[in-house]
Amino acid sequence: MKRFFYILSFCILLLPGAFAQDSLRVVNTDDDGVVRDTVLLKSYATRYSPRKALLYAAILPGLGQIYNKKYWKLPLVYGGFISIGYGFNFYQNLTKEYKSQLFYNLNQAPNDENFINPESNAPTRALRSAVDRSQRERDFMVILMAGMYLLQIVDAHVDAHLKEFDLNPNLKVSIEPTMEQNSLIGRQTGVGLFIRF
């Protein structure tokens, strides 16, 4: 008997989800006895899950924007990554070039900071600062790349959230000419920004 009670209470705890309304079709009857078939529409917002958009954008940059059907953002995402990648490559090559010139100077005159490289006409101290500067710029490009990656993830997540945001159709912003009569200054004309809710 105890075992039956435990099994019954366990089933009762697990079954509330089974009685939830899963179908999209509901049959209603009026007071007249007329059967009306009603189709429940899924919300536009439930089709776009912010969690999925975030996950897709984290897996592959731009995939969250595709999931949200904001295809016009793809050139911005990939253009940003390509531009930052080009900057990283430029400063990486510059760092290698300056380092090779610096090593040449250090091999020729290890203790002379004023030794001038015949290829670049730059002294050793100037090459040291050039190497530091180009490394700093290269590292900044890495930080920008990480920021771009996070920005596109946040954009996909927020965009999926804003799918459910409903705008008031009466909301209107317009720029109109204005004319105002003031007793102190007189008549004033200009342009005004009007917001109607």
What descriptive keywords fit this protein?
alpha+beta, two-stranded antiparallel sheet, two-stranded antiparallel ribbon, 4 strands
Write structural notes for this entry.
- It is a single chain.
- The protein is of the alpha+beta class and 197 residues long.
- The chain has a domain at 48-164.
- Helix content is 51%, strand content 16%.
- The chain has five helices and four strands.
- It has helices at 2-14, 50-59, 63-67, 74-108, 124-161; strands spanning 25-29, 35-39, 172-182, 186-196.
- Strands 1-2 form a two-stranded antiparallel ribbon.
- Strand 1 (25-29) and strand 2 (35-39) form a beta hairpin.
- The protein is flat, with a radius of gyration of 33 Å.
- The chain starts with a helix and ends with a strand.
- Residues 14-24 have low confidence and may be disordered.
Summarize the structure.
The protein has 197 residues and is an alpha+beta fold.
Shape field: flat
Strand content: 15-25%
What is the typical, i.e. mean, pLDDT?
Answer: 81
**Distance N to C terminus:** 66 Å
State the helical fraction: 40-55%
Total strands: 4
Main beta sheet, described? 2 strands, antiparallel
Low-confidence stretches: 14-24
Order of the strands making up the biggest sheet: 1-2
Write the SSE topology.
Blueprint: H1 2-14, E1 25-29, E2 35-39, H2 50-59, H3 63-67, H4 74-108, H5 124-161, E3 172-182, E4 186-196
Antiparallel strand pairs: 1-2, 3-4
Helix pairs in contact: 2-5, 4-5
